């Protein structure tokens, strides 16, 4: 029986390309590992990636190029943020106008907000959505009459017009509207839903669901419904009053929200990432915001410059 | 009426054609290297912005290797794990089949899951070569040219990748 280490890497590589001669092939087929390689070759043949959205990407590229040629002031963002924000760059270079992508066959309508930017939009049925910073909402306008459904990543406040089922999908689960006003915050590994008026049903990826009435809240973590999560609920979503508030939320999420709100970068030791924070910070005063985040967590911050904060 | 072919990529139609034919594979390449999908999309656009800025200096035939070079430099992380889930195309989803070789015995679904994890854990230099061949069906010669290495190096990396995958599937639950 032939052992694996006797097969040359190169021979194995040439086998996969069908380039071995008969003698080499026979030799290889004797090895115990051969059938395993065959199975691997067979199944990897069948792999594929999500198709690339060429048209959409080209439009985004054109936006970027136009932004450049106009010599618009380029807003500096940390590179990794810039990458994460992907398409929202187009918004920033495009002078902050709402960025509608339409007209590419069946592509949904997409509305994005950049860091530090909020936006209101009206859906085809006159339902209103207020989109918080660094968020994205997608819906299919053509199909709207059959199905009122949007996909949200980020945070938004919804005022839903009376009518059929209205559904908000997030990567962690589904929120179905039975009544009117509610807020959804979907960041990193969790989605929070607070009901302000009417009734809302929240369903997780496993199919567990709960119905919320005004001032009720629910949270989805990694696709699972958490039932005993009860933040204090004000009359309106806090972000609409210029405040970001958190109830038992990992510090990494809080810091990300701060970075997006103030458009800067924060360095913090990763050991603090999973510590839970309860509190709030204002959107109009960076030092107050930092005090309110750092003091209760017994952390210290240094403002290095306009765009970099170090927290220890 | 025959028009003379442009000898650079400053003409918008030429540029757009290049985007249509190359952007997708460039995105795949970045994903194979361990980039996230959004990030890869952004890096593709950045690479094409560079191409536009240097359009006078680049003849269309050279645009491809030019773009791959930029993309490689833009995403250099030798340790990067595969961030994107690969899919198996529809043709192969009869689920109850058992994979049986002298070394493996498991259900197809389990084998596929292990295979995916094993691919994610391949070293970047092996993974990019392996997936360019398996997913994009690129020939070794083409891969070698795009990466600026010899065909022999590609053969070796493919062989090493196969060994890594087999070992990984054998050893990990």
Low-pLDDT residue intervals, each spanning 5 or more residues of chain A = 70-106
CATH architecture of the largest domain in chain A: Sandwich
**Class by alpha and beta content of chain B:** mainly alpha
**Largest sheet of chain B, described in full?**
2 strands, antiparallel
What proportion strand of chain B?
under 5%
Number of domains of chain A: 4
Helix and strand content put the structural class of chain A at alpha+beta
Q: Which H/E pattern describes the elements of chain B?
A: HHHEEEHHHH
The percent range for helix content of chain B is 55-70%
Secondary structure tally, helices of chain A: 8
CATH homologous superfamily classification of the largest domain in chain B: Winged helix-like DNA-binding domain superfamily/Winged helix DNA-binding domain
**Which fold does the CATH topology of the largest domain in chain B refer to?**
Arc Repressor Mutant, subunit A
How many domain modules of chain B? 2
CATH class of the largest domain in chain A: Mainly Beta
Descriptive notes:
- The complex is a heterodimer of chains A (312) and B (173).
- With 312 residues, chain A is α+β, with helices and mostly antiparallel strands.
- Chain A has 8 helices and 19 strands.
- Chain A has 4 domains: 32 residues, no CATH class; 55 residues, no CATH class; 128 residues, Sandwich (Jelly Rolls); 70 residues, Phage tail protein beta-alpha-beta fold (3-Layer(bab) Sandwich).
- In chain A, the strands form 3 sheets. In chain A, strands 2, 3, 4, 5, 6, 7, 8, 9, 10, 11, 12, 13 and 14 form a 13-stranded mixed sheet that branches. Chain A has a 3-stranded mixed sheet with strand order 16-19-18, with helices on one face.
- Chain B has 173 residues and is mainly α.
- A two-stranded antiparallel ribbon of chain B has the order 2-3.
- In chain B, strand 2 and strand 3 form a beta hairpin.
- The longest helix of chain B is centred in the N-terminal third of the chain and has 22 residues.
- Classes of the chains: A alpha+beta (312), B mainly alpha (173).
């Amino acid at each position: 029986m032939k052992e694996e280490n006797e097969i040359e890497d190169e021979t194995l590589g040439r086998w996969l390309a069908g380039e071995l001669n008969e003698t080499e092939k026979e030799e290889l087929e004797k090895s115990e590992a051969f059938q395993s390689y065959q199975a691997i070759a067979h199944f990897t043949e069948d792999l594929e990636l999500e198709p690339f959205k060429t048209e959409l990407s080209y439009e985004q590229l054109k936006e970027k190029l136009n932004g450049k040629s106009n010599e618009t002031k380029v807003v500096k963002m940390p590179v990794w943020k810039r990458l994460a924000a992907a398409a929202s760059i187009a918004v920033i270079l495009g002078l902050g106008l709402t960025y509608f992508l339409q007209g590419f066959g069946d592509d949904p309508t997409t509305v994005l907000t950049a860091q530090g930017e909020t936006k209101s939009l009206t859906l085809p049925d006159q339902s209103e959505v207020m989109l918080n910073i660094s968020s994205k909402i997608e819906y299919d306008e053509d199909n709207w009459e059959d199905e009122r459904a949007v996909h949200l990543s980020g945070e938004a406040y919804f005022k839903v017009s009376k009518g059929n089922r209205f559904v908000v999908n997030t990567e962690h689960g589904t929120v179905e509207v039975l009544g009117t006003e509610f807020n959804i915050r979907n960041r990193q590994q969790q989605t929070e839903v607070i009901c302000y008026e009417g009734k809302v049903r929240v369903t997780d990826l496993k199919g567990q669901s709960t119905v919320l009435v005004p001032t009720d809240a629910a949270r989805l973590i990694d696709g699972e419904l958490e039932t005993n999560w009860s933040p204090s609920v004000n009359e309106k979503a806090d972000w609409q009053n210029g405040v970001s508030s958190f109830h038992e939320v990992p510090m990494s999420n809080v810091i990300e929200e701060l970075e997006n709100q103030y458009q800067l970068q924060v360095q913090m030791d990763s050991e603090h990432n999973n510590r839970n924070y309860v509190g709030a910070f204002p959107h109009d005063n960076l030092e107050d915001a930092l005090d309110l985040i750092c003091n209760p967590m017994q952390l210290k911050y240094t403002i290095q410059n306009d765009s970099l904060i170090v927290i220890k | 009426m025959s028009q003379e072919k442009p000898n650079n990529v400053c003409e918008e139609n030429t540029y757009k054609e290049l985007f249509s034919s190359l952007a997708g594979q460039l995105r795949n390449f970045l994903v194979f290297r361990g980039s996230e999908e959004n990030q890869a999309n952004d890096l593709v656009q950045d690479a094409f912005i560079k191409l536009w800025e240097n359009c006078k200096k680049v003849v269309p035939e050279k645009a491809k290797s030019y773009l791959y070079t930029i993309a490689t430099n833009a995403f250099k992380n030798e340790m990067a794990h595969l961030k994107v889930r690969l899919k198996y195309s529809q043709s192969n989803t009869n689920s109850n089949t058992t994979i049986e070789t002298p070394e493996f015995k498991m259900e197809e679904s389990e084998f596929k899951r292990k295979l995916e994890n094993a691919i994610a854990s391949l070293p970047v230099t092996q993974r990019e070569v392996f997936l360019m061949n398996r997913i994009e069906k690129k020939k070794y010669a083409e891969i070698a040219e795009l990466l600026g290495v010899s065909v022999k190096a590609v053969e070796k990396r493919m062989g090493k990748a196969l060994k890594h995958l087999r070992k990984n599937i054998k050893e990990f639950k």
